[in-house]
Amino acid sequence: MVCESWKAKLDTYVDGELPSEEMRAFDTHVHSCSSCSADALTRVQMRRVIQVAGKRFTPRAEFRKRMQQSIAPKPQRSFRLRWMLAAAAFVMLVVGTLTSAYLGKRSGTDQVFSEIADLHVATLASSSPVDVISTDRHTVKPWFQGKIPFAFNLPELQNSEFALLGGRMTYLAQTPGAHLIYDVRKHHISVFVFQERSLPAKLDENSLSPKKLSFSMETWSQGGLRYFVIGDASAADIDVLAKLFKAAS
Q1: In sequence order, which residues have a C-beta less than 8 Å from that of residue 161 and are 6 or more positions away?
Q2: How far apart (Å, rounded) are the C-alpha atoms in residues 20 and 80?
Q3: What pLDDT, on the 0 to 100 scale, is given for residue 140?
Q4: The predicted structure's pLDDT at residue 76
Q5: Which of 35, 110, 137, 159 has a CB 3.0–4.6 Å from the CB of 154, allowing a cystine?
Q6: Helix (H) and strand (E) counts in the chain
Q7: 3-class DSSP state of 191
Q8: Are the CB atoms for 183 and 133 separated by under 8 Å?
Q9: How far apart are CA 136 and CA 156, in angstroms?
Q10: 22-52, pLDDT tens digit by residue?
């Protein structure tokens, strides 16, 4: 009964719709409560399964054909009216094509950002968030050799407030990558690294807005790799850690 008030907000927490103060409080509770962390992980996994299932159904070609036939000019109408209807149909087709391309790009970008947030939450809710536990970058970096198809550098943290907790392998749309976890003033920050060419969508970094995510996040491409830095720490801390990685690379 102690966790009933927390469990009532689990779905809102997983969707990232809680206020920032409640998100931080919830993170602290989930890290200490095995029951709530298990429920949170189950909800994240279910959400990802539903997202994958939702992509299986797309409009058929017959639907587009029926729409084109319904707006095609009728033979008995005047030449001018036929020309106007044909022009209108062409404009609608062009607008629809451009809109579909834009929405497809945005939805692909939003999907990647959402999955990164899910991976961050699921990992921190896990009882074993890292596979290699070490604060030494010279121990963590070699651990990934042979496990992922690329190499990357870790920053020097001396004279900074950040601490490396360890790392693990992770997957984004069946693409293998590295997941590193850092700590700064009791806040956990995830750093994900993937091959840019292996990602399912070309990312639009300009569409990344704090209003869309319950976490602070930065992403960039460098040396053929795509980096994501995400966590409930301040945007300033996220920016500092991102700059350390950019300098190391």
Answers
A1: 184, 185, 237
A2: 60
A3: 95
A4: 55
A5: 137
A6: 8, 6
A7: strand
A8: no
A9: 10
A10: 777 877 877 778 777 777 777 777 776 666 5
Tell me the two tokens of residue 40.
């949170």
Q: Which amino acid is at 104?
A: G
Start-end of H helices in the chain? 4-7, 10-14, 20-32, 34-54, 61-71, 79-125, 137-143, 235-248
Exposure b/e, 119-129, CB count within 10 A at least 16 = b: bbbbbbbeeeb
Q: Are strands 225-231 and 187-195 parallel, antiparallel or unpaired?
A: antiparallel
Share of the chain above pLDDT 90, in %: 33
Global confidence as pTM: 0.59
- Nearest one of 100, 101, 126, 236 to 181, comparing CA atoms: 126
Residue 35, CA distances (Å) to 38, 138, 182, 248 in order? 5, 35, 24, 39
Q: What DSSP state is assigned to residue 217?
A: E
CB 143 within 8 A of CB 167: yes
Query: What is the per-residue burial (b if ≥16 Cβ within 10 Å, else e) of 163-194?
Result: ebbbbbebebeebbbbbbbbbbeebbbbbbbb
